[in-house]
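Re: [ENG-882] Designed sequences occasionally contain unexpected residues at chain ends

Forwarding the minimal case from QA. Structure tokens:
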């Protein structure tokens, strides 16, 4: 797991779709599950969605809390 990718989860927003404008880290699990079933899009956004799905699915989303706090304090 690349620390840079983890930071991107709390800074990058969803560029399209139902949750356009929402942070990748804030996407609901059912939306991430839908992508997992249908296939993640190509490129960086797909990699970030897949990573967030993995964290959410395994109950590890709390790993992002320190990054969120750090981002908030900037």
């Amino acid at each position: 797991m690349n620390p840079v990718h983890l930071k991107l989860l709390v800074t990058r927003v969803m560029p399209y779709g139902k949750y356009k404008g929402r942070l990748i880290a804030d996407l609901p699990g059912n939306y991430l599950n839908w992508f997992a079933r249908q296939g993640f899009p190509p490129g960086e956004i797909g990699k970030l969605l897949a990573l967030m799905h993995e964290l959410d699915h395994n109950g590890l989303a709390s790993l992002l809390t320190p990054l969120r706090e750090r981002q908030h304090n900037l």
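QA comment: On inspection the terminal residues look reasonable. The mean pLDDT is 93. Proposing we downgrade this to a documentation issue.
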